[in-house]
Queue: 2 jobs
Job 1
Amino acid sequence: MIDKIKSAAEAVAPIGDGSVVMVGGFMACGTPEILIDALVEKGSKDLTIICNDAGVPGRGVGKLLSNGQIKTLYASHVGLNPEVAARMNTDNPDDKLDCKLIPQGTLAERIRAGGNGLGGFLTPTGVGTIVAEGKQVIRIEGRDYLLELPLNADFALIRGTKTDTFGNTIYNGTTRTFNPMMATAADYVIVGTCEIVDVGGVDPNEVVTSGIFVDAIVGGEKPWTLSK
Amino acid sequence: MDVKQIIASRVAKELSDGDVVNLGIGLPTMVADFIPPEIEIVLQSENGIMGMGAAAEAGKEDVDVVNAGAQYVTINPGGMFFDSATSFGIIRGGHVDATVLGALEVDEKGNLANWIIPGKMVPGMGGAMDLVVGAKKVIVAMTHTQKGKPKILKECTLPYTAIGVVDMIITEMGVMELDESGVTLTELHPDFTVEDVRAATEASFKVSENLKPMNI
């Protein structure tokens, strides 16, 4: 079996400048902080980050933003990280953040489509709003839908609760969020997990993400907490 | 009761036994406190919970269980967790009976604006666009005016969250129902007159022949 266990630094080493990186989690619950920390340490620039939100300063992708590593952010909500608004509105072109706001359900489904071999999907969400600008509207049985296209990435940073050495991963509680879809939609998938067990150590009935999607496994992810 | 409690208490009366309900952050979250014990609703949280329970007791939190406002919550017996694609499949698929959320503006065609003030506040739409398009009933719960300025308008001035989706507006002044015929005031809080409501509302509205005191 391929040895997928790596240190955080080894796992993020291939993430170069300009990479497109999906990051799991919702308000940083379900975000692999050890992988984010390693990426901050590595200092890759001009990243395109695809994540539900911008975390908060000092948490989740908020750390990458504070460190000036994000050029483009795809997210559904950025209101709890005031740095986003400041960076969107700055006059300094080097600091300017290109923030693409996407309805949360559309974001999740675009990633799912990307990982599931679909050329896109039709959603009623956003019809008649600025989200529809530039998109094809298709009428089916009297109702308008927007054609939304799939999203893929070079890398996905996933947070697991328990992962076996093949990469089979389970997610506790509300840490699941975007992780399972992102694990299918990126070329290289890194799981930061709380506990690594031998193959056979996770019940196949409970596995959500198959090890076939996982390229690297990093242990030592801490339980998520609000205070920090 | 303060203004928010009046609104939350009235929203709770709209929910029926067995309803699947998504409550927005802020005032809508308070609705859960006013559900009578004989009514059992199933709360959906878009970050991945069906059967969400009350806020977690201090010291007894499960650190892996939070609501969409990133607060520690509990899950009720019979509940489950799921990923975000499944969550929004539930929402868009019409499996949520009612969604309760706040608004910056609502207009007489049922259009809703609640996610952006261009140049001033750009928090993003989060799950709101999906929720109001997918839920069977959309209840806007908000104060009737913002610093004295009407929020119920002839036409929204801010970018839409969705068009023609609002079914009901519940404020401290009363209850308005929206359909193809327009806006109808159906309940009035006893502290206010119809004229007070007209003065605080830019949209034109009818007064129901069966206008009732607000059911709080």
Note: Chain A touches chain B through 52 residues (CB under 8 Å).
Job 2
Amino acid sequence: MNSNVASVKLVLLGEAAVGKSSIVVRFVSNDFSENKEPTIGAAFLTQRVNIDDHTIKFEIWDTAGQERFASLAPMYYRNAQAALIVYDVTKPQSFIKARHWVKELHEQASGDIVIALAGNKVDLIEENGENERKVATEEGQKLADEENLLFFETSAKTGYNVNEIFLAVGDKIPLKRPNDNANENGSGNNQNSSRVQLTDANANAANAGNCSC
Amino acid sequence: MSFLGSLRQKATFIDKIAESFLPSLTRDEKFKLEYRLPDEELIVDDINADLSFVGAHSKLREIQNHRTKEQNVGAYVFSGRLYLTKHFLVFRDAFDKKSCVLLLNLSTIKRVERTPSEANNFSLTLTLYTGSEVLIQLMGLKYKSEQFSAQLKLHLKENIENARKLPQFLNTCYSEFILNKNIMHKTDLIPPKSGLGQQFKYPGNPSMEKEKLKLRLWFDYFKENGENMGIVKNHIFHKLVRVGLPNRIRGEIWELCSGAMYLRYANAGEYQQILEENQGKTSQATDEIEKDLKRSLPEYKAYQTSEGLNRLRNVLTVYSWKNPDVGYCQAMNIVVAGLLIYMTEEQAFWCLYNLCDVYVPGYYSKTMYGTLLDQKVFEYFVEDKIPVLWEHIQKQDIQLSIVSLPWFLSLFFTSMPLEFSFRIMDIFFLNGSRTLFQVSLAILKVNGDALLASEEDGTFIAVLKNYFQTLGDSAYPDSDDPKLRSITKFQQLLVTAFKEFNVITSQIISQQRHKFEKEITLNIETFVKKTQIRQMPKTFYLHSTDLSNIYDIYYQSIETYNISLGKGSSSMNYDVFVQFLGKFCDWCKPCEADNDSRFVEQKNEFLKKLFNYWDTNDSGELTLNNVVAGLDKLKTDDLLIMINNFFNLYDKDGDGELHREEVLALSEGLLFLTEPWRSGRYVDVLTKTAIENEIADRIVEQKAQEEDGDDTIELPNDVEVNEEKYKNEQSERYLKAASNFLQRSIEYARSVDLPSDFNLIELSDDETGGSSESTDAIKKKNLNTLKANAALDPTHPKRLDMATFRMIILADETYELFFSETWRCSTHVNKLIDTDNTRGKALRGMFDGFMADGRKVAKQVRIRVDSVATTRSRGDSILSTDTNATSNTPMAKSLSSSTKEDKFEDIDDFTSEQQEERDDLLGNSWVEMDIDDTMIEPERKQVLSRPPMSNSISKDLIEFEA
């Protein structure tokens, strides 16, 4: 195994049809298709990027966006080091959903998770004018500032800011030494090896206790 | 040893079935499930019988026609059981189900004749509309046979109306078309409307010769065994399905196997009706459907046209209206897109209906519990049948569901090339959901070696992806045997699935589902709760445990809603709302006064106002979030806000003033709210303090009588408190407050006609001022009764503004206390509901919920003792004891059983008897009731939470609900 390669598990979350899969496809294969089949459950893709003198291998878990699939999400964001929460700048509801995801991750995911917020589909605004925009850049920025998130407005269609957002995530991830890395891929790590089902999330919640107010 | 070798060794042990018991289905349920009959088809009668089917155009009939009238020549005779339901005659061979299952809709029967035969035989000949004959010999006692045939006759009669639909229905069946075309040699026949494939070609590149051959085989089958609504399914039927259905008839056979055909016949026109009724209507489901239309098998040509998209939209939306509990789930779009290639909209709709109901129950529900459950069951099978691979998956921490979940949820449509997934569908509709498990297991097994070599999710997924893309390739490309070389990977997969994993039966699946059901349900409930609590509005006075309790009480109140199944409405109507509040609000608990019509009127008047006030979106129903926001307001510790909120309830037009009628309504509301205290069921702080003072006085008195040398202070064990006296005092106080309130509010209301009749400016300005001042002022004004009487005169309209209202409330100690504390503290949002607290109630004394605070009493004693200035006073001994709970005991006892004699005991004496008393006390549910009480200081709470009894249970509950 290449000792300069660090694996980063990244999960994509967000409302249905905001362009999660499209962002991944743009990032992984620099491609775009207008009508993609919805993700059923989750999809998994990988992509390597070079940052400075090291390589990061993104292991991307792309999740289904429809509300009822939310109960599956904990299976996918467990142990994630990074999350990309996507909303559609032309759909205010998707921004509300993004807020919920931020909240859920802060409560349930690992404490040092790096979260990035992507306001996708800005190409629609360029195409059809500012009227199309339903979520102001400032609103996104404000949420990002409050919750300590990276923030970009993106377009999977044009590729605008797609690489940038992944690179920014890569930059912010605390790098592990190659040794730790080997450990991560193996099964030695006690904390990570147990399969987290929904039940484990409960245990976390019990610890979280009073912080939901 | 090879992977497969080691597998074979491990996989051959027998299932341990005995340990789990089956979910109990009734005979009727089993029967309907087995033959995929609609819900209404209950067994009317059943009997043993011998049966032969002679197809109208069968070879046998041809032979017969050339002979004389002799019947029964050479026909197969099956022995089995015959069932009659409302619309069906079902026969199944007793020995081998696959050798003969007859499914006959009564509408297909043209004539029934009783065949003359030997004395004891009871024979019937049914002639079908096609000319086919079913010969039945009923076996059994004569009266049973008579009874059965009488029932048959009756049901045939009742079915006459229904049978009229048959000819039209048959026009939609492809089987009728090919029979007519090839037997009658009609050349001008138009094939019935079918799926999109008719127009846009079928996926894959089926060779015409092969299709024709397959169709021919079905044609022959129909001739011998009947078709669509009256068909015998034998082993050839199963075989023909297994080799893959010809595209043109695929839709009909799917429909037939799934039982959707029977639904379509029974509910003719319903699809069209729902479609038309809901034209133009939108819902969350239709919005979601719209988003996904173009994302459903987008490579298939038809779904790039409006024709294809329209059909897809229609079927999905009609289903979402038909079954709003499911609505629309992603993956349904793909499944329906698949169905519509072979089926008309109506066919696809009923097929989807049965699919969601019978084949993959709960998969697409709002919580997707079926999906989660079957993933769990699948994991169990992998562990059980392919343990080596399971070990590997565990060790490498590979998320199996990321590959398997889409297989189950979209029935392989998104995983493998369509032509292969349709082949799997053929078998799936015939054999049910076990097919999904069998094929999924086979996929893992066939790829076992490669999967064992992959160390992470990425390669695991890549192996399978590659496999699916090459399903059409040879499974043994390197073999010398050309026959072996010609076997495709897909064929190999089917063989593995249906031979090797034949052990996965429907029965075993239901057992396993049953086993994991509870776990999944619990997980979902926990998850849903966490999510909902997270998405609640921001609250200021309710804390996380309160929210958790409110959530529980809320859903306990809405009985029709099933959280884990995601079924039913999750909103609350007014009646449920009243019950809901009654569960944890002292002021809304069912009580004796509920028999009093005036009280009930007051209650409904107030609660309806509250309900509407909380219903911020005017929907006529409250959501959980409405309720949380409303309760948060009720729990505010800001006296003025509390008063304002109450005022606003009655200020309909929001102009900050109440009219005379509104003032009267408001005072009625107050009467309702304060009833529990007025009637003495609960005590407020004023009464409580008075009781404590009395006890303290007595201790001091007692002490004074004792010897000088004694330097401990004893709390009385049993104090006789004159309950009646305190109850009356409190009642009087509340009555007085109520009458004062009414009087004052009329007196101080601003007169609309006579604005400066008398001076009240100084009063209304003095909102927050000391109550002594205002009471003085009020007393003065009280003298002016003449003016007050004038105010009651309706010809002089008056208005009460918020400031005045506040002043009036603040002027009365009881009402002020009510708004600052009594009301808020009697809304027990932090109380877990104890469903079994009726026993505890019976034990309670009249002053329900009262608990004297030992510390307070001790403090009072101390003050008194100090003020007496006895230098020997060493009251510390009381304060230093950490036995507050113990010191409570006598108090509580005295209140619940006033007949006991006074008796004094050393509080340091922890006798076992006292311990029992304490446990008794803490085990009693009314202890829980008061934990909330702010009058209780934190130290007490600690003591209360320490004993193991009821508190440990509630603690567990909290963890489980967090």
Note: The first helix of chain A runs from residue 20 to 29.
